[in-house]
Amino acid sequence: MAETTYTFRCTVCGWEVTIDKPELPEDFTCEACGVGPDLFELVEE
Ligand SMILES: [Zn+2]
C-alpha cells in the first residue's frame, strides 16, 4: 500500500513541506518566513 503524502508550498517565499495529511495544522508556520497555513498552496504532483 502506497503512502500518500501532500506537498504544500509557501506562496510568499516558495518553501515547501511534505506531510501525510491533506491540510496543514492551524498552528503551522513557514519555517523560512513565518506565515501561517492560509498562505500555503497544495502542490499537485
Ligand atoms: Zn514562507
What can you see in these coordinates?
- This protein is mainly beta and 45 residues long.
- It has one domain (6-43): Rubrerythrin, domain 2, CATH 2.20.28.
- The chain has strands at 6-10, 16-19, 40-43.
- A three-stranded antiparallel β-sheet has the order 2-1-3, with no helix packed on it.
- The chain starts with 5 loop residues before the first strand and ends with a strand.
- The mean pLDDT is 95.
- Bound molecules: zinc ion.
- Zinc ion (ZN) binds next to loops.
Key attributes of the depicted protein:
three-stranded antiparallel sheet; 45 residues; Rubrerythrin, domain 2; single chain; binds zinc ion; 29% strand
Q: What is the name of the CATH architecture?
A: Single Sheet
Report, as a whole number of angstroms, the end-to-end distance.
18 Å
**Which ligands appear in the coordinates?**
zinc ion
CATH domain fold name = Rubrerythrin, domain 2
The total count of helices amounts to 0
Tertiary shape: globular
Quickly give the structural class.
Answer: mainly beta
Query: Which bin fits the share of residues in helices?
Result: under 10%
Question: Strand portion, in percent?
Answer: 25-35%
Strands, total number: 3
Order of helices and strands: EEE
Query: How many structural domains in the coordinates?
Result: 1
Radius of gyration: 10 Å
Give a brief outline of the structure.
By secondary structure, the protein is mostly beta strands.
SSE layout and pairings?
Elements: E1 6-10, E2 16-19, E3 40-43
Antiparallel strand pairs: 1-2, 1-3
Bound molecules: zinc ion.
